Every structure is written in C-alpha cells, then in structure tokens.
Amino acid sequence: MSYDRIAVIGAGAWGTALANVAARAGRTAILKARDPASAAVMAQTRQSPHLPGLSIDDRITVTGDLAALADADAILLAVPAQSLREVATALATITKRDMPVISCAKGIERSTGAFMTGVIAACMPQAIPAVLSGPSFAADVVRGLPTAVTLAAADADVAAALASALGSATFRPYHTTDVRGVEIGGAAKNVLAIAAGIVAGRGLGASAGAALVTRGFAELMRFGRACGARPETLVGLSGLGDLVLTCSSLQSRNFALGVALGEGQRLEQAQSKLVEGVFTASALVKMANEKGTEMPIAAAVDAVLDGRLSIEAAIESLMTRPFKAE
C-alpha cells in the first residue's frame, strides 16, 4: 500500500501547510487552488496570501485544474466543513476507486448533521473516507515546527500507510481506526473554544478559564461515548490535545472570536474570517439532545451565537446549575 502522489484541495493556510507536509515527507505533492488565476500567482511567487512571509515548498505543484488530481494516490480535503460536500461531489468524477480521501475539516455539516467522512462516503462511494485532526496551527506546520496529529481510517492498514506517507521528522501522525472519535474531538473543541474565548474576553480570570476547559472536556467525553468513540481517542491528540491548543491561543479563530464576543463585539463584527465553531454549534447541540447527552457549555455557546441568550445570562445559567458530584 503506497501513497506517493498526495494531492491537497484547498490552498488556504491549512491546505498549503499540508502540501508542505507531503513535500517534506518526500511525496509528490500537488496543491489545488480554487481558481487558475490564484494558482498561477502562488506558483510563481511561492507565497500564500494566507501565510504572509512563509514560503510554499518548491517541490509542490500548484494548480487550479481539478483534472490534474486524477493520478493522485490520496487526496486531502482542506476545505471548510460546510463546503466539503460540493468539493467531494466534483471530485467524484475524476478519482480512482479505493482512493483514500482525507477530510481535514473540523466540523459537522449544519444542514444534515453529518460528519465529514459521512459526507465523503455519500458523495464518493468509490473512495476510502479518512480524517486527519489534532493540535496544529498552519503557521507552525509550514515553519517545520514539531507537530503531532491523529489520522483515522476504518481500515487499520490504510490508516497506518497514510500516516507513514505523511510523517516526517517534524510532522508525526498517529493512526487509529476510531474515525468517529477523531471527528468528534475536532468538531466539539471548536465550539468549546468559543466559550473559552468568551471567558478570556470577559476577563473572568484564569480560574474560570481552567474550569471552562475542564468541564468542556467532560462534555466532549460524554458526547463521544454516546456516539461510540473510544476513550483513548478522546483523551488523545485529536480530543484533549486539540482542545487545549484551541482554548489557549489567539491563533485559533474560534478562541479569537470568543474573545471578541466577550469584549462586547457583535457576531457580525467579530467574525472577519470563517470560524467553523459558529456553524458547528447548533448541529452539535442538536445531536447531543437527540442522544440525551448534556452539553450545557456547548448549548450556551449556541444560544449566544443565535442571539437567544446574552453572555451575562449564559454565564449565570452555567453558574446556577444544580450542584452535583464530579
């Protein structure tokens, strides 16, 4: 099982970083930009507008032509969660049977409640769905700073081969067959990071921040167990690891949005870039309710984003919940 030609769809910060990962691992790397004009500029300048001051590896072929991906051995989808269905549908017309298609989006499809591998399976029945997630910022990855993530596929051999194909001295993928657990960690942590940002933006203190992250992780664990995820996945890189990173740095769009909301900005003002947690919150809460799983922090975030609760009321609702054993 050999994956020597790795294609990445989505030439934003994360897609560009992943193409660099593939090139550093010694693979033939192709980066697909949204349109040919953008691809031509990036190919010539070896720069991404999303990663100022950082270079695109010279070994990467940058293209705007979807057909150029037809000979790829595996494809990474580094596109927003709410756009993945459209991209996967277009991709289905050119890809080979049993090609791994790896979601790198951390979200839940808002209109259907589907996780990303479910969207891939529905749109590309000939493909092998997989997911890559974990504590990673694109700028760190492009710089070659040490990063560890989780790569999951239902077939253990496929997961291991993909991890080997992408791994290098600075990028370490751990592999697993717990696809759902990896997806839950990536999706839920974005919603919880908005809550952590609100706490920071409101100036509620380090103690409140630690409590928020801890109780948020308890929610993630409850939801994961209800969905059949393995505990070791949820306490691993794609669960606890990603939650810790995303809840502690302004490099996280979700945390930064929460900080802006906590400081008093309206959602329209605060959301200058795509923030996955905004779209995931309602889908996550709906799924939790359907499974009878309590996620009060996620529900509070959803209510704040939807305008049903003020931040003050959301904080009060969490702090006045009935006392119970931990």
Low-confidence stretches: none
Q: Rough shape? A: globular
Report, as a whole number of angstroms, the end-to-end distance. 46 Å
Mean pLDDT: 95
Order of secondary-structure elements = EHEHEEHEHEHEHEHHHHHHHHH
Walk me through the structure.
With 326 residues, the chain is α/β, with parallel strands linked by helices. Helices cover 49% and strands 13% of the residues. The protein is built from 15 helices and eight strands. The chain has helices spanning 13-24, 36-45, 84-91, 116-123, 138-142, 156-166, 179-201, 206-226, 231-234, 237-246, 253-262, 267-270, 276-290, 296-305, 311-319, and strands spanning 5-9, 28-32, 60-63, 74-77, 100-103, 128-133, 147-153, 171-176. Strands 3-2-1-4-5-6-7-8 form an eight-stranded mixed sheet, with helices on both faces. Helix 3 links the parallel strand 4 and strand 5 (100-103). The longest helix is centred in the middle third of the chain and has 23 residues, at 179-201. It starts with a strand and ends in a 7-residue tail after the last helix.
What's the short version?
The chain is α/β, with parallel strands linked by helices and 326 residues long.
Topology:
Elements: E1 5-9, H1 13-24, E2 28-32, H2 36-45, E3 60-63, E4 74-77, H3 84-91, E5 100-103, H4 116-123, E6 128-133, H5 138-142, E7 147-153, H6 156-166, E8 171-176, H7 179-201, H8 206-226, H9 231-234, H10 237-246, H11 253-262, H12 267-270, H13 276-290, H14 296-305, H15 311-319
Parallel strand pairs: 1-2, 1-4, 2-3, 4-5, 5-6, 7-8
Antiparallel strand pairs: 6-7
